[in-house]
């Protein structure tokens, strides 16, 4: 299990992301947090790779590579929010397929991504990595896992409280890197100041409850909250626990037109 010093934590304005290896010999979770101050736009991406012999790390790394390329090319300025996230997911899928030849095992990955822009939130996911949207203590929405266990829940065969520990939870019905382009699920919300979002790999949401995630987002310091959440997830996962990936984000008030103009005229 990871010690405190082995947590990999990254920060950007209004958000903090981090990962821990848990009890696994390798790290198959990857993430990125990006922010453009002039455009008051933030992008968060979290991926959980699957496949032995290094394929899982290769797959999740491919997702983050594709996201970084699209961000640097400023594609997000040219496309509506939902279309950009669809483009991102399809590009990540293509990148994983390109990396297929690098390893013996076939690489696959989940993805969950959030774009905050102009007081609006757009998100997309494939697989069982989740996004939670909170307003204070209340969970407004959570993404629906693309897993066999979730299908069993929909059929009434299991209870929601048993979902995280069902043996079919890790049997995914959708993912990136397969033979067919992925079917991406999208979400949208108008954001109020103080709204919070948590992007989680299954190593986090299987060990931390919704109320605990909401509590992390209400903490004064997101960095400290993130560190606490990763440590708690690693402790509960134990010596055989899964990798842990978590991004916490709090909405920021949209910049006024005067503020945006000042940002564009500022010298960097």
UniProtKB/TrEMBL annotation:
Residue ranges of every copy of the PPM-type phosphatase domain listed in the record: 12-251
SMART domains: PP2C_SIG (SM00331), PP2Cc (SM00332)
InterPro entries attached to this UniProt entry: PPM-type-like_dom_sf, PPM-type_phosphatase-like_dom
Organism lineage string: Bacteria, Pseudomonadati, Pseudomonadota, Gammaproteobacteria, Chromatiales
UniProt region (Disordered), positions on chain: 1-27
Residue ranges of coiled coil: none
Protein name per its UniProtKB record: Protein phosphatase 2C domain-containing protein
């Amino acid at each position: 299990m990871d010690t405190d010093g082995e947590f990999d934590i990254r920060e950007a304005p209004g958000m903090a992301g981090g990962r821990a290896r848990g009890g696994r010999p390798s790290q198959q979770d990857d993430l990125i947090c990006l922010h453009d101050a002039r455009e008051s736009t933030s992008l968060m991406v979290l991926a959980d790779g699957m496949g032995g012999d290094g394929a899982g790390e290769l797959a999740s790394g491919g997702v983050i590579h594709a996201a970084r390329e699209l961000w640097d090319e400023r594609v997000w300025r040219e496309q509506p929010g939902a279309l950009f996230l669809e483009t991102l997911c399809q590009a990540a899928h293509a990148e994983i397929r390109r990396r297929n030849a690098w390893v013996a095992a076939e690489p696959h990955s989940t993805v969950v991504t959030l774009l905050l822009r102009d007081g609006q939130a757009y998100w997309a996911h494939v697989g069982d990595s989740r996004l939670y949207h909170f307003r204070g203590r209340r969970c407004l929405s959570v993404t629906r896992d693309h897993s066999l266990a979730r299908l069993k829940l929909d059929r009434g065969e299991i209870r929601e409280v048993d979902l995280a520990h069902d043996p079919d939870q890790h049997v995914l019905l959708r993912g990136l890197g397969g033979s067919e382009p992925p079917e991406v699920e999208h979400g949208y919300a108008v954001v109020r100041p103080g709204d919070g979002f948590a992007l989680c790999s299954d190593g986090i949401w299987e060990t931390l409850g919704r109320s605990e995630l909401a509590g992390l987002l209400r903490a004064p310091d997101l960095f400290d909250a993130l560190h606490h959440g990763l440590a708690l997830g690693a402790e509960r996962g134990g010596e055989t626990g899964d990798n842990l990936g978590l991004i916490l984000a709090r909405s920021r008030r949209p910049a006024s037109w005067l503020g945006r103009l000042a940002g564009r005229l500022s010298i960097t």
